[in-house]
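Q: Structure tokens for this one, please.
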Amino acid sequence: MAETYVVTASGVALVAATAKTVAEVTAGSTVSARIISIDITTKNGVTTQNSEMLVELVRYTTASTGTAFTPTRVNGESQNRASLCTAKTNDTVEPAGTVTVVKSWYVPSTAGVIQQLPLGREVYLPPSTIIGVRCNAPQAQTVAVNIEFEE
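A: Here is the predicted structure, written as tokens:
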């Protein structure tokens, strides 16, 4: 049975019209991972109907500068171990190198989105690869992001 973990970034401030990686996962050097769900919510967003935030699930080739986060085990009693993947939240320096958008959504500033990836169609991370959730809002606002993954 796979262990399930979550990376949680809450209270992350977005600057208007500036892309920011809110949370990211780096697969361990000896283990792969699968992203099984992502959710994004906003706080103190504007009330204008035409102010959707662009949210992207992005693969990176180089690491960023951000706050280290220890992935939290959600379930799975079979191994009862810490994640071999690492994570960061609230990047202060965006990753350099090649950026590949895997999925993208427009999310209303007054709402959120939950993206559960169907069994067999999860986003796969080979060992030592990086994936993150990047947000770009037209107005300054605060977001919370959760990335749930298995390894």
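A few notes: The radius of gyration is 15 Å. Residues 4-150 form a domain with the Jelly Rolls fold (CATH 2.60.120.380).
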